[in-house]
Structure formats: structure tokens, C-alpha cells
Amino acid sequence: RPISATSIPGMLSMFQNEWDDLMLEQHELRQQLFTTRKELSHALYQHEAACRVIARLSKELDQSRAANTTLQLQVAEKEAQLVEIISKREDE
């Protein structure tokens, strides 16, 4: 045992030091927790925003594909009409 632990004032001083150390550690842990919560909140916000962007881009991609398919069908239709007109003129 340390010499300071052999007297009541020495023990009280040791207990006070231990208490102070515990309170300081608790304060540091609370600060770390607060910082971690802020970082998590920010990361979740970024993740949610990224999910919204992905959903919007996916919707736009689907719309673009549908428009492309429609245009391809219209082009094929016009080509068929052109071929028909050309073949009629050649027959004349």
C-alpha cells in the first residue's frame, strides 16, 4: 500500500484524485460520443442524399431508354415508308 493510503486524509485525497480522473474520463467520453454522433448524422445525411440521386438518375435512365426505343421504332417506320416511296417511283 502507498504511504498516503495509511491515513484518512491520505485516503480522502486518493479518492478525490480517483473521482477527478473518472469525471475527466467521462467528460472525454461524452465529447467523443457527441463527435461520433455528429459524424454519423452527417454520414447518414450524405447516404440519404446519394440514394435520392441514384433513384433520380435511375428514373431518368429508364425514361431515356423508353424514349430511345420509341425513336428507334419511329425511325424504322420512316425508313419503311421511304423504301416504299422509292420503290413506287422506280416502278413508274
What does this structure look like?
This protein is mainly α and 92 residues long. 91% of the residues lie in helices and 0% in strands. It has one helix and no strands. It starts with 7 loop residues before the first helix and ends with a helix.
Quick overview:
By secondary structure, the chain is mostly helical. The chain is 91% helix and 0% strand.
Tally of strands: 0
Gross geometry: rod-shaped
Give the SSE order as H and E letters: H
Task: Report the β-strand fraction as a percent range.
Answer: under 5%
Keywords:
92 residues; mainly alpha; rod-shaped
Topology:
Blueprint: H1 8-91
